[in-house]
Amino acid sequence: MVLIVASFKHPVFSDGFVCRALAGASWKDLKAVIVLNKMDLFSAHDEELKNRIQATYDRERTGYPLFPVSCITGCGTNELLEHIRGMTVVMTGPSGAGKTSLVKYYNPSLDVRIGALNPKTSRGKHTTVAAQLIYLDKNTAVIDTPGLRMFSIDHIPRNDLQFCFPEFADYLDECRFRDCLHLTEPGCAVKSAVENGSISKIRYRKYTDFMNEKKT
Ligand SMILES: Nc1nc2c(ncn2[C@@H]2O[C@H](COP(=O)(O)OP(=O)(O)O)[C@@H](O)[C@H]2O)c(=O)[nH]1
Ligand SMILES: [Mg+2]
Ligand SMILES: [Zn+2]
Q1: How many Cβ atoms sit within 10 Å of the Cβ of residue 208?
Q2: What is the model's pLDDT at position 216?
Q3: CATH 1.10.40.50 occupies which residues in the chain?
Q4: How many CA atoms lie within 13 A of 34 on its CB side?
Q5: Which protein residue has the closest C-alpha to ligand 1 atom 23?
Q6: Residue whose CA is closest, atom 26 of ligand 1?
Q7: Residue of the CA atom closest to atom 9 of ligand 1
Q8: Range(s) for CATH 3.40.50.300 in the chain?
Q9: Pocket flag, ligand 1, residue 99 (CB < 6 Å)
């Protein structure tokens, strides 16, 4: 299972990063979970952003659980731990999102380095330089990995990217053309689902962005 650790701010939440990582996990048939860290920074005017993120990755549609957590207050961390108990999971996420802090939260005696954020850009500084497997209890382990600027999905063939967006699945057989790639084709059931709100516009937009990036 992959934990995609993103902070809801500092650094700013990136749908691009999260959607790439989700697609990458799906391509390898790995389960994925979204961890929305730094909820201690939440204030009243962040309500809209939080609702927007939760709607975009809505579990009913995408199948991905989302855990809002904070490594400072500990909120949400028990629910997350229950979800991963007994498994070995790998974390990925932008530099500075708080991956190492999360392991440290669960395992305070651990000697790991936590990075300071660049005060100008709120970006992380790649403090974790190698992957490290840490046991949280006898049967549960987390692999901390170096932060990434970007998660590449170049290895996913263009025609297969559609299968890496689980919420498209119900519509794929209903497109007019068998080889529909859900871009500009007429009679596309995926696009109709986006228009009537059954598929998130943001998720679909990421799909089209990624498709346009891919040449073949
Ligand atoms: N406010 C707040 N800051 C956090 C939280 N988790 C991590 N940080 C801070 O974010 C920065 C980057 O953390 P780090 O764990 O090194 O991120 P990584 O690059 O994803 O491993 C550090 O300054 C942490 O103290 C959190 O839940 N809330
Ligand atoms: Mg780290
Ligand atoms: Zn289509």
Answers
A1: 15
A2: 62
A3: 158-213
A4: 27
A5: 116
A6: 38
A7: 98
A8: 2-144
A9: yes
CA of 38 to the centre of ligand 1 (A): 8
Predicted TM-score (pTM) above 0.70: yes
- The identity of residue 41, as a single letter, is L
Q: Which CATH class is domain 158-213?
A: mainly alpha
Right CATH for 2-144 from 3.40.1160.10, 3.40.50.720, 3.90.1150.10, 3.40.50.300: 3.40.50.300
> How many residues are recorded in the chain?
216
**Ligand 1 pocket, 112 CB below 6 A?**
no
Compute mean pLDDT per 10 residues along the chain, 216 residues long, and list them.
96 96 97 98 94 97 98 98 97 94 91 71 71 91 85 94 98 98 98 98 98 86
Q: Determine the distance separating the centroid of ligand 2 and the alpha carbon of 31, expressed in angstroms.
A: 22
34 alpha-carbon distance from chain centroid:
5
Q: What are phi and psi of 134, to 5 degrees?
A: -125, 130
37 lines ligand 1 (CB under 6 A): yes
